[in-house]
Amino acid sequence: MNAFLNAIYEDQEILDLVIGEPLNSVASYLPALLTAVNACLVLSVTDCDGVILFATDRFCELSGFDKDDLTGRRHNIVSSGTSSESFYRDMWDTVLSGKRWTGEICNRAKDGSLYWVDTTILPFTDTHGKITRFVAICNDVTNKKQAEQQLNQSRQRLKSLLLMSGDWYWEQDTQFRFTLLSDGFKKTGKDPAAFLGQTSWDAQCAQDEALWHKHRATLQSQQPFRDFEFLVTSDQNTGLPVWFSLSGEPTYDERGQFMGYQGVGRDISTRFSDQAQLWKLSNLDSLTGLPNRSRFETTLDRCVESGKASGEPFALVMIDIDNLKVVNDSMSFLAGDELLKIMARRLSCSVRQTDFISRLSGDEFAVILLDLGTVKDIHRLIETLRCTLEAPTDNAEQGRCTLSLGASLFPAHASASADLIKNANIALHRAKSNGGGQCVLFESEHKHRVDRRATVLRAIEQAISVDRLMLYYQPVVNPVTRAVVSFEALLRWNHPKNGIISPGEFQEVFENRALTARIGKFVTDMAIKQAALWSRERVDFHKIAINVTTADFVLGGFPIWLADRLMHYGVDPAQICVEVTEGMFLGPSAELVLSGLQIVHDMGAEIAFDDFGTGYASLMHLKMPIDRLKIERTFVTNIENDKTNAAIIEAIVQLGRRLGKGITVEGVETQAQADILLAIGCSQFQGYLYSKPLPAHQVASFIASYSGSKTTASQLSA
After folding, report:
1. 155-164, 220-229, 308-317, 537-546 — which one is most confidently predicted on average?
2. Do 103 and 72 meet the contact criterion of CB atoms below 8 Å apart?
3. Residues of CATH 3.30.450.20 domain(s) within the chain?
4. Among the listed ranges 438-447, 461-470, 552-561, which one has the minimum average pLDDT value?
């Protein structure tokens, strides 16, 4: 302590600066001050050679040495040896020149542990200006240094994880220019050097002023951001767009001064590519490239709303190829598909840029004609369109192609999309019933279709009451394992005169929602009842698929009815599959349907998306509780000759697997088709190659013969 007192007394100027008063005025309380210093400050006094003359109690406490251990020893007794020779050389050069030195030093305690001190060394001189001793005042910063080390270790682990994940770490300066891009960035195929020194908006290629203005405002306000996505450039090798996603947080130094940003980046090009592919599948007809039904309905709704606002009329024209079935039957489905492509090209060349064309399904097209004149002009325009489409094709074997066209006008015939479609279809059916090859504009006296519809409705209601509706079951099989996977329940009408009739021949019934809901309840009850019967008889059917409609949910209370029937017959929900179509997710009942499907899914029943791939499905629908995608038969019919269809099916299979969904292929009719589908990776098939729909009493024998037979699938179906 005497050495410390001598150092203080010999430097009156320093004391005056520290205490703020002349020494003689504070002599009375100096001992108390020194006691506090001894207890609280990590302080030591050494001579010019670094020999310790004095150390405070706090110094001893931190280092673990007693004063007797320290006094007379060189100060390097607490040296950890972790600092370089140049570090100490610079320190000694500074203090020996009479200057104050400040820095952080890592010391070693008596027990071997390391501790960090933020140190200030003050040289003291005698009256002749000669340095006589040094006073070192320290602040324990061990916790801070350990926190920094842990932070650095965490950052290093993060960088390692990012490198393994394909993401990358980045840093920006105060001007938001990239100063660091980790090695993971190289996986994008881009040169990091090309981005260093640039801002993110310098690097992007498609300027969106609103988007970037908002992003710059976020950066300038020093706010964190998440998943900021932007288009960088197009890949020179593939021509595909390259998309980046950035997430970042502002960084500050120890004084709280803004230093820039740091964060992670990700190449999300694959996601956008997948979305683009799904968008095409969802919005465009795969065969013709025309907009599909979903796009058509959206566009028609938009035209109706625009027409209501502007008062401008437009026409909806429904087009049907009269002899497509003949071409398919006499030549092949490949020839029929080629005819559809020709019609699509002719339609595209015949209409104006303001008009809209779509392939709805099969041989049905739709055209929305805008900017119309008089009704006479409309007749002439539609007739010209028909003649253009009916021009002979290069393939003479296809014969002369005739088309039927039916049109309805907005607002003359209807002011709602559904009514416009209905009236155009009424006119189309009138054209076809008149022999085809003609155009019919809807007229209010077209009652024949309404009359037939009423007749069929009455007949079906009677059939329900006298139990003339029944279910047939078409198997879904795995030809590799020769296992029967499930059965689809298909409605049939046992007509007293015409025998077994499929729903296609009484389609008008399903335009009546109330009757559709009644039929839906019947189908659900019969299918579950049959499942219970087969279970008791130990028929290994696995699962029964039930087709449902919007009416089942809106009017039939399907989830409640399904749960009631399952409990009534004692059937496990896992033995039931509910098949839905795209149309159920359109219109005002979409939310009700979706919530009902979620309930059904939560029960444990499987949900299948029927007719997937025809262009009716959309990205939003794939996010719904769907377990299985059923690929529509149109992709299968000519798969032997059309590599595009095979590629589309393969893409759907891959996308389905990515989304964790099962895949079933419908309409498999030949062994060649099955072989191609197996090579693609499909394993569950449904179609006439394996079996037509069967009455319930034939199911057990089919399972036994199929699962136990060693014959080929072709022999079995024969």
Report:
1. 537-546
2. no
3. 2-140, 146-267
4. 438-447
Cβ proximity of 101 and 121 under 8 Å: yes
Say if residue 718's pLDDT is above 70. Answer: no
Give how far Cα 662 sits from Cα of 337, 382, 655, 657, Å: 28, 44, 10, 7
Is there a contact between 637 and 649 (Cβ–Cβ < 8 Å)?
no
Cα distance from N-terminal residue to C-terminal residue, the chain: 111
Domain(s) of CATH 3.20.20.450: residues in the chain: 464-717
pLDDT of residue 715: 38
Pick 286 or 113 by higher pLDDT.
113
Amino acid in the structure at residue 86: S
**For domain 279-446, is the CATH number 3.30.70.270?**
yes
d(CA 225, CA 689): 56
Beta-strand pair 101-108/356-361: unpaired
pLDDT in tens, 109-140: 999 999 999 999 999 988 888 898 999 999 99
- Written as one string, the DSSP assignment of 259-324 is EEEEEEEEE-HHHHHHHHHHHHHHHB-TTT-SB-HHHHHHHHHHHHHHHHHH---EEEEEEEETTH
| Exposure string over 151-163, b if 16+ CB within 10 A, otherwise e | eeeeeeeebeebb
Give the Å distances, CA to CA, from 338 to 169, 302, 401, 422. 52, 31, 12, 28
Quickly name the fold that domain 2-140 has.
Answer: Beta-Lactamase (3.30.450)
Question: What pairs with residue 607 in β-bridges?
Answer: 578
**Over pLDDT 70: what percentage of the chain?**
86
Nearest alpha-carbon partner for 135 in 11, 268, 237, 282: 11
Integer Cα distance of 329 and 323 in angstroms:
10
Determine contact, residues 477/444, Cβ cutoff 8 Å. no
pLDDT one-digit tens code per residue, 291-350:
999 999 999 999 999 999 998 999 999 999 887 776 776 677 787 788 888 888 888 888
Cα atoms found within 13 Å of the Cα of residue 136, Cβ hemisphere only: 28
Instruction: Indicate the range of 50-59, 89-98, 178-187, 350-359 predicted with least confidence.
Output: 178-187
Rounded Cα–Cα distance for residues 140 and 145 (Å): 10
Q: Which amino acid is at 82?
A: T
Query: What are the structure tokens assigned to 363, written together?
Result: 């041989």
> What confidence score (pLDDT) does residue 606 get?
97
Report pTM. 0.43
* CATH 3.90.320.10, domain 146-267, yes or no: no
486, 544 Cβ separation under 8 angstroms: yes
Query: What are 573's two structure tokens?
Result: 């929900």
Nearest to 74 by CA among 109, 114, 46, 110: 46
pLDDT band for position 537 (cuts 50, 70, 90): very high
Q: Tell how far CA 476 is from the center of its chain.
A: 29
CATH topology (fold) of 464-717: TIM Barrel (3.20.20)
